[in-house]
Amino acid sequence: MILSHARLPVPTLPREARPDTDYTSGKANQLTKKLITEFLSSRSQGTSKHTIAFYQRCLSKAIGAELSSQGINSFLDSLSCGNAKHSYYRAIRAFRNWLEREGYSNPIKRVDAPKVQRKLLPSVSTEQLQALLDATDNLRDRAIISLLFDGGLRLSEICSIETDDIDWSSNTLRVIVKGN
């Protein structure tokens, strides 16, 4: 499996606030559909469509929320989704960091990330894995199960494997993982 280098942040200089926005003095006071649309269209090429959908889903729920540290905390406190609060926090943080690059103030620096309750997921025993393998009736299904459990691949990564990605002479597999 070949892993690519991690994406490095590209430094950007803050831009001046745009005159076509509804906000004055470099402050975005409230989350609006217009701001979300601008944010989503500004995402760099190579951003996964799933990441864009994640931002859209999380930020749409916060439309109308005040974009101050108190407003963000209030919005996060109003959620009853447990560990998912951190996902909303991450989406709002990305949005506010974008606003800061656009020349607005950024109160997210004064908001603590919600605590994520770490839960150890049960693992599959050797017997359970063998039962799965025994239940298959073809080589393809056995290979998929082996890649899931032994290779640690995601289902989407397995589905994207092409014939050219397999090197039979060295018994290696080239997989493009999450984040390219």
Could you explain the architecture of this structure?
The protein has 180 residues and is mainly alpha-helical. It folds into 2 domains: 1-119, DNA polymerase, domain 1, CATH 1.10.150; 126-170, no CATH class. Helix content is 42%, strand content 2%. The protein contains 7 helices and 2 strands, in the order αααααααββ. The chain has helices at residues 33-42, 49-61, 69-78, 85-101, 126-135, 139-149, 155-159, and strands at 166-167, 172-173. Strands 1-2 form a two-stranded antiparallel ribbon. α2 packs across α4 (85-101). The chain starts with 32 loop residues before the first helix and ends in a 7-residue tail after the last strand. The model is unreliable at 1-26 (pLDDT under 50).
Keywords summarizing the entry:
180 residues, mainly alpha, DNA polymerase, domain 1, 2 domains, two-stranded antiparallel sheet, 7 helices, 2 strands
Given helix and strand content, the structural type is mainly alpha
Radius of gyration: 22 Å
- Order of helices and strands, N to C? HHHHHHHEE
Overall shape: it is: elongated
Strand content: under 5%
Largest sheet: spatial strand order: 1-2
- CATH topology description of the largest domain: DNA polymerase, domain 1
**Assembly state (oligomeric):** single chain
How many domains, as an integer? Answer: 2
Helical proportion, percent range: 40-55%
Number of strands: 2
* CATH architecture descriptor name of the largest domain: Orthogonal Bundle
Pick out the low-confidence regions. 1-26
Q: What can be said about the biggest beta sheet?
A: 2 strands, antiparallel
Number of helices: 7
Task: Name the average pLDDT.
Answer: 78
CATH class of the largest domain: Mainly Alpha
- Taking the alpha carbons of the first and last residues, their distance comes to 13 Å
